[in-house]
Amino acid sequence: MFKFLKSTIVSVLALGLIGGVSTVANAAEAITLKLHHFLSPVSFSHKGMLVPWAEKIMKESGGRIKIEIYPSMQLGGTPPQLADQARDGVVDIVWTLPGYTPGRFTKTEVFELPFMHTTTTATNLALSDYVKRHGDEYKDYKLISVFVHPGNAFHSHNPIRTVEDLKGLKIRTPTRTGGWMIEAMGATPIGAPVPKIPEMLSKKIVDAVLIPYEVAMPLKTFEMVDYHTELDDPDVKNINTSTFMIAMNKAKYDSLPADLQKVIDGNSGDNIARWLGKIWDESEIPGRAEAVQSGEIIIMSPAETAKLRAMTEIPVTEHWVAEMKKNGIDGQALVDEARALLNKYSK
């Protein structure tokens, strides 16, 4: 009996030790990823998009992936450096605009051309489909998503009711395609990342900015301008949109166990395109409501909107096609493909 009890105790202790080793091993497998971005922790992008996305990954990984989010460029650098930070492994994941690094992600720019954007979800689905064939620009990354916001309204010190009101204005833009569009309006583009907007408006370095209502709200744009202009067009209410990307360091992704890669994949591409469209559309509602309370929403008349379309759509698209041709790329074919995809997903 003594020998039996001794044997049992030894077995239990052995199992306990094995269990303890297993627990330690599982704990050792837990991986912390650093996600860096340029907006504040009170922005929708942070609390309404990135935080829920990170929490979902942690839950689906059984706690084995933890994503620490660093807003407002807390890990150093400037917004245009975010793409390099992810590529070079300075951080693990970034959320940024491809357009902050002009000339690098040129094929994606097609969705930023004037009057190209339709609805947020349709454009996201079209983009997700498009990058499956034209994602070579992202070969240095594990691309989690390329997506858009609901579109840019004009937010201005003075009312913009007609195309004449645009002439001579200084308008902030984040991208080169936006700059070409602003020039086509007879205005002057001023390139700058989003965090510079409050200073530029308060010091009247610019007369207007092109951003969605959601982005305008945490920047306190409504305290600095009184007018917000949308378009009256059968297809769109805003002249253009901006593309964003969530991108991961490729080597870091490759180093993950296969089951954890599967968790990341399940929260990437097509799997989150509709969700991103839905939450960004919902985020515009409180932003627009605040704009209504603080100033005037102007709907540019159909006639003036048609003039604006004629001034910008074809000239800017032709400019982009010519730029792509310099790099040996058939830009017109990409325009046609993007429009076909948008038509497909807008039905």
Task: Give the topology.
Elements: H1 2-29, E1 31-36, H2 44-60, E2 65-70, H3 82-88, E3 93-96, H4 120-134, E4 141-148, E5 153-156, E6 170-173, H5 176-184, E7 188-191, H6 197-202, E8 208-211, H7 213-216, E9 227-231, E10 243-249, H8 250-254, H9 258-266, H10 270-294, E11 296-300, H11 302-326, H12 331-346
Parallel strand pairs: 1-2, 1-3, 6-7, 6-8, 9-11
Antiparallel strand pairs: 3-10, 4-10, 5-8, 5-9
Helix pairs in contact: 4-10, 4-12, 5-11
Brief description of this entry?
The chain has helices spanning 2-29, 44-60, 82-88, 120-134, 176-184, 197-202, 213-216, 250-254, 258-266, 270-294, 302-326, 331-346, and strands at 31-36, 65-70, 93-96, 141-148, 153-156, 170-173, 188-191, 208-211, 227-231, 243-249, 296-300.
For the biggest sheet, the summary is: 6 strands, mixed
Strand portion: 15-25%
Which outline best applies?
A: globular
Elements, N to C (H/E): HEHEHEHEEEHEHEHEEHHHEHH
The CATH class of the largest domain turns out to be Alpha Beta
CATH-defined fold name of the largest domain: D-Maltodextrin-Binding Protein, domain 2
Briefly note the structural class of the backbone. alpha/beta
- Number of helical segments? 12
Distance between the termini: 78 Å
Global Rg: 24 Å
Let me know the CATH homologous superfamily of the largest domain: Bacterial extracellular solute-binding protein, family 7
What's the pLDDT, averaged over the residues?
A: 92
Instruction: Give the fraction of residues assigned to helices.
Output: 40-55%
pLDDT below 50 for ≥5 consecutive residues: which ranges?
1-28
Instruction: Please state how the strands of the largest beta sheet are arranged side by side.
Output: 7-6-8-5-9-11
Number of distinct beta strands: 11
Integer count of domains: 2
